[in-house]
Specification:
The protein is an all-alpha fold. It contains six helices and no strands. The protein is globular and about 35 Å long.
């Protein structure tokens, strides 16, 4: 079983991949915005502040949003747990990343 730190490290690495993808295609930020809007109506009250923060970051633009997405801090790690970037990567890309991560980090 993975530790919380390992899960956070994997999430950070995955968001670095997402950031590369969004930088190549900034229109994908709009996909994240739509995800935030959709989730705001369905997630628990406890998750709302994270979605509000993502919405604020998206409103600031690609650079500000992606800077937080790949920041190595407790705040960014907490935000990544409610990341609106689901769907930016294809299933194939995400599975390839997870498979590679697992191979590289097996004990």
């Amino acid at each position: 079983m993975r530790t919380h730190q390992e899960i956070d490290e994997r999430s950070l690495a995955l968001h670095r991949l997402v950031a590369e993808r969004v930088m190549r295609d900034p229109a994908l930020l709009e996909k994240a915005r739509k995800t935030v809007v959709r989730w705001r109506g369905t997630v628990s009250i406890a998750s709302q502040p994270y979605l509000e923060e993502w919405e604020r970051l998206i409103d600031q633009g690609v650079e500000a949003c992606l800077a937080m997405a790949v920041e190595d801090s407790q705040k960014a790690a907490a935000l990544r747990q409610s990341s609106p970037f689901a769907g930016v990567l294809t299933n194939r890309e995400r599975f390839a990343f997870l498979k590679s991560w697992q191979r590289e980090h097996e004990a």
